[in-house]
Amino acid sequence: MCAPSAPATPDYAGAATAQGEANIDAARATAKLSNPNVINPYGTQTVTYGAGGTFDQAGYDKAMATYNAPQASVPTDDGTLSNILRTFGTLGQVNDSSTARVMPNRADFMIGGDPDVGTVTQTFSPEQQALHEKSTQTKGLLSDLGITGATALQGVVGKELDLSGAPAAPTSSGRTRDDVINAMMSRVNTDTTNQRDQRNSDLIAAGIRPGTAAYDTAMDQIDRQYNDARQSAITAGGAEASRDFGMDSQARKDSIAEILAQRQTPLNEINALMSGSQVSNPFASNLGYQAGASAQPAPIMKATELMEQAGQNRYAQGVGQSNATKSGLFSLGSAALPLMFSDRRLKRNITRIGTHSLGIGLYEWNYLWGEHSTGVMADEVRAVMPQAVTNIGGFDAVDYAMLGR
Question: Residue 155 class from Cβ within 10 Å (0-12 exposed, 13-18 middle, 19+ buried)?
Answer without folding.
Answer: exposed
